[in-house]
Amino acid sequence: MYGVPPRGNYFDRQEIPYSKWIDHASTGVTGPHMALIPTVQVLADNDYKGYYLSVKAWRWGTSESNFGFARIYFEINKKPKNKYAKITVEPKSGIAFETTFTVTASGFEDEEDGENFASYKFGFRRDVTDSITWFFESPKSTSKGRDTRFPDGLESRQFKLDIIVRAYDRNGAFTDKWKSVTVTPAQPSEVENILATATDAGGLVDKLLMASDLQVAPVADVIGKFLNEEADGTLSTEQIIETTTQMATEYNLTEAARVVLEQEIQTQQESKKDRRIATRTHFMEGFRRIKPPNVEAMQGTAAALSSLTKKEDELTEDAQTAAADIMEEYMVNLERQGTLSADDREEAATGLTEVLGNVMHACGYTAEKAELEATSLADSLVATNDSRMYTYTNKNRLGGKRVSILILFQAKATFERLEKSMNKMIGLLSKYKVVGEKKAVAESEKLNITLEKTETQLVNQNPNVYVGGMTSVLLPKSQTVFGEADNTTTWFVETEALRLPNNPFTWTNASAGSSSMKITSDVITLKFRNDTGDEVPVSNNPQKFDFFIDRSNYDTSVQSVRNITWPWNEPMIYHTILIQPESSFHVRVTQMFEESDIQDYVDYLDSQSGTVQSDNSTHGNVTEIASFFMETEPVQFYVFIRANEPPTTTEYDFNCTLSKEFIEVVDMLSYMDAYSFENDTSSPRSLYMTDIPDLDTCLYSSEELQLNETTLFYIGIKHRTYSELHGSNSPAAAPVSTSNTATQTTMTTTQATTTPARKKRRKRWGWGRSRNRQNSGSVTTTVGPTRPPENLEEQLNHLLQQQENEEQQNSQKDKKKTNKKKIIPESAYKQAVYTIQIFSASCVWWDKNNDVWSTKGCEVGPLSKPYRVHCLCDHLTAFGAGFAVPMNTINLDDSAFSKLDENPVIFATMVSVMCAYVLMLIWARKRDLQDVIMAGSTPLPDNDPRDKYLYELTIFTGSRKNAGTTAKISFILTGDQQETPPRYLADEKRPVMQRSNCDGFVMAVPKCLGKLTHLRQVLVDHLLSVI
């Protein structure tokens, strides 16, 4: 690169040192494309008039002396300066949406234009991490004359709102100046009034929308935030009940009054939600008429649209359709901006991405709700499928089903329109993206877009594609997708990755396949495009893609069940589990070493024995109480699994040993490096692995299980200590048989043959050590140099060591001092206490042609965890994951009652539960008989059989102390036409007017009393009259 002095020419050029600008080339300088980042300081800090950039090129594999030159001349525009710039805001503080502010800027300077700037843009943001909301653009440096109102600042920032003024010179370069202003929230009553009158005819918003005035954008943004805050403050049914119960206690309200209050709150909330829905729809319809003249204006309206579309359950079908229209118009506008820089285009795309994500999820929500309603109506029609029962109600149900189906298809059509707009936006970003340049990322709460262009031969250098959250993709070797180096189908690859934290594909075609799969993870889409812009079809790829799909937005908890093992010659305690078809099966078993973890069980045995013995003998590693002997040496668990019947140590369908051996983990992950190619100098794929399989988990994929229906599995656990396995007194026969008579696939693992690395922890090997796989009696350890891992074994060692260090740090933080009981050993067999966790997962992809989630070509991988599912798939489309935690039970038939004297806890617990159940059953039956008597309404004893006009009276008695009465009560009921004589409240079969009662009576009168006006109550026994 050469600089030309102000009054010089080509021959006066001066070379700029390579080292001063090469680091600013984000693509490097050895490829066919180069991109310089916008701010290369060395170009801005000198006095050169212009620059020459020269490119030297020669054929690959030939001598550099046979080269050619190409050069280009360019001039740069010096960036404006804000050193003396100043912003004034009047007034200096105000109230959100009420105070009108005026923003004025001065003091900006430009080397070429002086103080004559082409335009000024005004905006604000609530936090430094928020995107800027632009509300005004003008050739003048003031917003005077505009009705400018701001939202409130964040309370965490003392309600400070950041105001920005951006000054543009005639070449499009700009500089910014910031200032903070205090904007406090409006009073709740004012907010309520604002929301209630926001869209009134003739109001400010209505006038702006009717005039298609862009000034409505900041107003709509503020109102959208108010709507969202009000929606966030909505109480759930449980919260309403809790709130009204507290109020009833505080103010001594009756249950009837509490119920009325609860209904009033629910009615108010429903009314407010209807108003919010109407307001959002009104704004969306109005924004459809507004045509932003430039990208800056479009960014301002996008910020408002983002606030208005944030709540998917408050966007009607009409609002969604309006949003699709707006996005199509905005994409056309964005396409016309040919001179827009790549960075400005990406900034604009970020705002549009947020709107697209919000509305796409709203379409998915609407479609799912419509499908559920249609299914419910269809089920109710089937339940009454009788010609004699085809009533008016059923006609309404059939009509409702048709409406729900129409809504579903409309939501799907709107989603597809939004998807096309999104793809068009991605295409525009790609059009101005240079190969090797930094990736373009547009992130929002409900949609992430990542776009990158890479030379095909460099894809293997960094095969990890991070999509957002904990979701990522490990790509296969590029040769399996695009061909080998000498025969590639494209010289560069464009990678498009999308992440949606919730499933938007909620419409399904049940006739085309199973559609009941519940997606409880991110949904990610991955595409490749070649150098001509066409999508690269990928199906049945020989090496699978590793998808790591985030589940942190969903419930990641897994039920833990604690139990103990029994000797090999005695029955196992069985756990039973139901596994769905096309799902994986994960069993995690961990040993418990500390008595404090099972203190409740130990206390029970203490109470049974009455005494506890202890000494300071050499058996300090064993905790034994009464007939229970806890094993505290590290053990190896043997897991036996069988479908539909209990397994034994010789008859089972599947089995594994835990913790896993290092060689097992290596074999499990060997698929990662199964493909290698000549002249491929890239590192093995396994070196890009950032996690390891759980060493305490057995995994059985859907391919291994081959289930056609929901199947019940029995799981039994046995154990051996490592000293038994490797000592001189170890059993002659191996406890796990390698033969299996079952018809299902058997996975048999080899027993451990190495000494445990340390007590109370599973075996680990630090990286840099090697294990002699052939030697069954010893371990060869070699300390290696501190260098990066070079293969799968070393990478696993490295990750294992990192995990071990983290666990040691955590254990030291959580370490507690406990008083352990050391008991004289009375038995050679010690029971290992374990916790078992079982979960199931599935990997699915969206079949767009058939509108179903399918599992074909995908399976659950060995790196799956409850918080992130690992999927192995041989093609590209939209992917998701299902996750389930089936009920984990214990088979008591085989464990609790085989030997009652050896199972005192389970036996005593079951007897106690059965006794309590019988007693509760007797009590409940008596209460049911009383309820039969108390139910219904009783005719008054003084009713005249000739009277045919009936009134039903319901009388509530309070719940406070002494609220009931034993007095004989009479009353006179008065209407605007006539009144009754004194009538008596009595019932011969049941007590009335008791505390907390609800008594019903039927009163007969000769004719209608008219509109009821009042009731006079008389307590006859106490001669007291109350009006």
Automatic annotation (TrEMBL):
InterPro entries, per the entry: GAIN_B, GAIN_dom_sf, GPS, PKD/REJ-like, PLAT/LH2_dom, PLAT/LH2_dom_sf, Polycystin
Main location: membrane
PROSITE patterns registered for this protein in UniProt: GAIN_B, PLAT
Region listing for Disordered, in residue ranges: 725-791
Bias kind Basic residues: ranges: 757-772
Domain GAIN-B: 734-893
Residues covered by the PLAT domain: 949-1027
Family matches, as Pfam families: GPS (PF01825), REJ (PF02010)
UniProt keyword annotations, A-Z: Disulfide bond, Membrane, Transmembrane, Transmembrane helix
Keyword hit for Coiled coil: no
Gene Ontology BP term (one): detection of mechanical stimulus
Molecular-function GO term, any one: calcium channel activity
Localization, UniProt: Membrane
Positions of transmembrane segments: 905-924
Record's compositionally biased regions (Polar residues): 726-740, 774-784
Family of this protein: Belongs to the polycystin family.
Protein name as catalogued: GPS domain-containing protein
Organism: Pinctada imbricata (Atlantic pearl-oyster)
